Amino acid sequence: MTSRDVLLEVSDLKVHFPVDSVWARLRGARPVRAVDGVSFSVERGSALGLVGESGCGKTTTGMAILRLVDHSSGRVVFDGENLSDLDASAMLRFRRRIQVIFQDAYASLNPRMSIGDGLAEPLVIHGLFPGRRQERVRALLDMVGLPSHFVHRYPHELSGGQLQRVTFARALAVEPELIICDEPVSALDVSIQAQIVNLLKDLQREFRLTYVFISHDLSVVRNLCDRVAVMYLGRIAEVASRRQLYEGAVHPYTKALMSAVPIPDPDLEATRERVILQGDLPSPSNPPSGCRFRTRCPVAVDRCGESIPELREVNRGQWAACSRISEFT
Amino acid sequence: MIESAGMEPVLSVRNLHTRFHTEDGIVHAVGGVSFDLLPGKVLGIVGESGSGKSVTALSIMKLVVSPPGEVTADAITLEGEDILGIDEVRARRIRGSRIAMVFQDPMKSLNPVLTIGRQLTEALREHLGLSDRAARDRAIELLDRVGIPMARDRLGDYPHQFSGGMRQRVMIAIALSCNPSVLIADEATTALDVTIQAQIIDLVKRLTEDLGTAVIWISHDLGVVAGICDSVAVMYAGRIVESGPVRDLFHRPSHGYTLGLLGSTPRLDDDEERRLQPIDGLPPSLLDPVPLCPFLPRCRHAVGACREKPPAWRDVADVHGTRCWADLTPYWRATNG
Amino acid sequence: MNTLAYLARRIVQIPVVLIVTTLTIFIVVRATPGDPVELMLGMQTSPDAVQAVREKFHLDKPLYQQYLIWLGDVIRGDLGSSIRLNRPVSQMLGERLIVSLQLATAAMLFALLISIPLGIVAAIWRNTWVDYGATGYMVLGFSIPNFALALILIYVFAVELDWFPISGIGSSTSRGGGVWAFVSPFILPAVALGTVQTAYFGRLLRSSMIDVLGQDYIRTAHAKGLKPAVVIAVHALKNAMIPFVTMVAIHFGYMIGIQITIEYIFAIPGMGLAVLTAVVNRDFPVVQGFTLVIAIFFLVTNIIADVLYTFLDPRIRY
Amino acid sequence: MSTPPLHIGAGDPSAPPAYRGGAFLACQQFMRNHAALAGFFILLLLGFAAVLAPWISPYDPTALKLSEKLLPPSFSHWMGTDYFGRDVMTRIVWGGRVSLSVAFLVVFYSLLVGVPIGLVSGFVGGRLDNALMRMMDAFLTFPPLLLAVAIVGLLGPDLENVVIALGIVQIPVFARIVRGSTLSAREEVYIVAARALGASAARVVFSGILRNIVSPIVVQITIVFAGAIIAEASLSFLGLGSQPPDPSWGRDLSEARRYMGDAPWLIIGPILACMLCVLSINFVGDGLRDSLDPRSWRAKTTGGSTPRVPEQVTP
């Protein structure tokens, strides 16, 4: 790790959703701290996995990077330029370089546009390939493994996997550098999911793409990502390289999360030690004091409630936010 | 087909067919499913969406609406009693008391405008004839058992006041309220986070062991099935293509589709370099079933026989059978060395 | 508590809406041509007499002052008096409102009586002849103007069969009392008025019922082995009724305005006819007072609809 | 209960299907709805009759011929004659001319004003939205017919004023529908996706939102059109619409009322005409509602897949 070519750097990102109505505020409703101080960086050509359970703020983080939601504070630096300061028109330049894929491919395509029109739209917006757009659209379909006559189809005529391929084609249309993938394979059946995962890998190699891969599925993330950040209630619990995380996770939450992921091997399942977390996720509008995880943490002690633990480097490149971390490593 | 080995099965299904008459034609959702469920055991049914696993469950529960649905079978036997031809009134007495079901989405499966207490006591009053008071006491006991704190105070609450995991606990309490001999869990943990899923699986395992309830666990997740089931049936395009004891099936998959599923599934303990082996193409149309193996167009291991005649059921080991002509053992050994 | 807070907030908003509403009406009424005093007194009257009437009704003052005077009076509970009839508006309102409410209630009862069973059976036996019959009735009910239906009803039931009287609402004493004497004049107007609502409500209930019957919790209820009647009456109907009841309340608010043609045909002394006469005569205080009451009535029924919604749906807590 | 999982995979057809635009597919779907198609043709017929009234009706709609008053239906007078000896059938055809043109103008004007208000309100949001919607609310606190009666009453009984009154009444209806659809369209993932692609606000409005609010607007047009026909008849019935001796369904009914005991056929004709017209529009409206939904556009010729919304497997 000598000359790190960092493409995206997020530092201390916070997204708080304010309480809109005066009445609700009077009754003591608090802002939802969906993302509350998240930092990570992504190297060019690599894939960062952003994992966590529902409500942990992983999707909001992705949307804040894209400026599709406004962040309250923090910085998002893309290729040396601070996106947080840009106005909408300056942001337009970057829209071409940062693309996004959503979980529900059907919903992310305009139902009244044919696939061909949908794929041509980004080309029109950015004035790319004038006069050759039809060929470009067909080439894009080919890239994602779809036949060219799909240009005349409508989204509702396609299967889930095909639709997700179309959204990839649309993202690739503008030759982006970074693609934020928000649970792109979660809604798909495993056999189709595997097709898409492999497609993602191939495209990454072919176009030297950088991914921020948002997912709740640790197994998929292991297959696809070089580094992984584990989020819990708006904060990062642990961030490490793939090998470090999957073979030597240090944060109690990461350990519990991993032990809860089922493995398709009956012998292993019968012998695995499982940490079953008690209770539910607390509300992000009223998180526990100190360490957010302490209410469910199997090793929590009194002092965990005193202050919010900062991310600390435990091993080289492996960071964890736990005040008892020194006792575990 | 999972045959009973000496023990009398609590539920036995023979050659179940379910069709739906639609505008476009007849959809053959289930095309000849047979299995035996042994008392106290957990049978997993795995398959992707559209494979017919949920419809199989609904058919057994007699919850398929006719028309457009149409259910036929050679036999469906519950605790030695034929339930295939029974009328709706008797079917109703069986549902919820002797076979109970837990569904995928606990938010949608609970009635939003009725209290938890009401929804929990309904079946008790209906099937066991309990008084309001007795039903209430039993409801509190049940909620307590599924791990809902302060059960007494929560009877008057509505579903939206519970978290996702808690709702599914309530669903389990409802399902187990009349001590059914069979519990069908249809993707019961799919909508939940993994840590909550682990809680629920743990709970179901514990409760059914205590009560001696036999379970049909329907899931698309091979990992969940590997962890909870005693035996597994793999469904594809409305048919069981392979079934056997869970260890046997995972160690010696003997159908092209099972192999494909395992190859497609990313694992937490994977090698980092392992490339997934997806199944190419898409599942077949259920409108016009082909006589040959429905998996043939997507299969990497097809042999000559596959293109000539429909696959017959054959045993590969004790109570482990497959509907596949190809001998996949060498291949499987080679790839998993 | 929160529902109460929401309610309080809604009630606080009423005056704001009412000021916008009455101000709009005030400006429109005054801005259109036609002088009430001339209309009333005719051309030959002496300028002094005209001036006297003008002063009495503050018509000589600038518009904004007239509005403020009117508003001040309203706040003190005085709606003024009719230019034409020289009677207090509140007194006229009292008589008219009772008649209109009686008719609206009768029509609503009829609409509910028909639409609820119709909507439920159409949803349960969807795509059978029961459903086709019910939806056929609803489409016809939508398509016939209420005054046209009234004419047909009058011809068949009053002229040919002579079962019901054509008029008599609001003059109950003249017939010498008795329940039938009070009720019978309401039957034809109520049916004529309520038929459109039977179609509207029936269709709404049918579609919300179909929606509810497709929900997962209905499947759960069946999986519990409950009787089909229980599933429908408890699990389905309770959910389907939420949008239905809300819509019924809102329609009740509108009922008074739709009555106008029916009042015209059956010679019913209701609010609609009063507004019509007052508008034609430029009887400002009457128009102003009646529109205020109609707007209040509509706003109140809307709030009732909202409250009913929170009452029926435990998920909503403001 | 549960719907069958109609996941019927797409075996890609060897021959690529011919290109078919959305409009074509919507039309194709509309044609499958027989009631809607019938309604459409009846409307077309009524429209032609109204336009060609002067040429196709054998009698004068207004000329008095007292010698032929109150004749029952016969071959020469299909629907009989009225008190002044005028042919009822002729007056119905001419009345349709009035009704349809009033309804058409009402839709036109209320659309012209209501849609931009709703679009601006929904898209800009904030204070402007609040102000516009409170204004619309003020209109909505009156029952629409009563408001129309008041407006016509103030402006004077006249067909032009009927158009103005009914148009004003319908403006908030269009504004609200457009605003609602805009707001919900704005939340759609594909609109977010378009923004992420760098689409400008104008592009989002016109290509994303407008396309998707067309169908609620079109459906609302049919509702307003039907409502306007009934409202015009109601106003004319009250004596606020077209003035004698001009023909009008409502006006004629009001006159026929007096001779109902002796000449019941006088009320049947206008009522049937009005109902037929409204019924047809309602059928067309229902047909449009279905056929404008892209999920219904499955041209059987394309073969392969059937509609399938991806199954949600995760929270």
**Kindly state the mean pLDDT of chain C as a whole number?**
83
Say what oligomer this is.
heterotetramer
Q: Report the total helices of chain D.
A: 11
Instruction: Report the biggest beta sheet of chain C as strand number plus sense, adding barrel if it closes.
Output: none
CATH class call of the domain at 96-312 in chain C: Mainly Alpha
**Range of strand content of chain C:** under 5%
Specify the structural class of chain C: mainly alpha
Radius of gyration of chain D: 24 Å
Order of helices and strands of chain C: HHHHHHHHHHHHH
Tell me the CATH superfamily of the domain at 84-295 in chain D: MetI-like
Query: Would you identify the regions of chain D where 5 or more consecutive residues have pLDDT less than 50?
Result: 1-17, 299-315
In the CATH hierarchy, the third-tier topology of the domain at 96-312 in chain C is known as MetI-like fold
Note the main sheet of chain D: none
CATH A-level architecture of the domain at 84-295 in chain D: Orthogonal Bundle
Sheet/helix structural class of chain D = mainly alpha
Written account of the structure:
The complex is a heterotetramer of chains A (329), B (337), C (318) and D (315). Chain A has 329 residues and is an alpha/beta fold. Chain A contains twelve helices and twelve strands. Chain B has twelve helices and 13 strands. The model of chain B has no long low-confidence stretch (mean pLDDT 89). Chain B has an eight-stranded mixed beta sheet with strand order 7-8-9-3-10-11-13-12, with helices on both faces. Chain C has 318 residues and is mostly helical. The longest helix of chain C has 36 residues. The mean pLDDT of chain C is 83. Chain D has a domain of 212 residues: MetI-like (MetI-like fold, Orthogonal Bundle), CATH 1.10.3720.10. Chain D is built from eleven helices and no strands. In chain D, helix 1 crosses helix 11. The interface between B and D is medium-sized, with 30 and 15 residues.
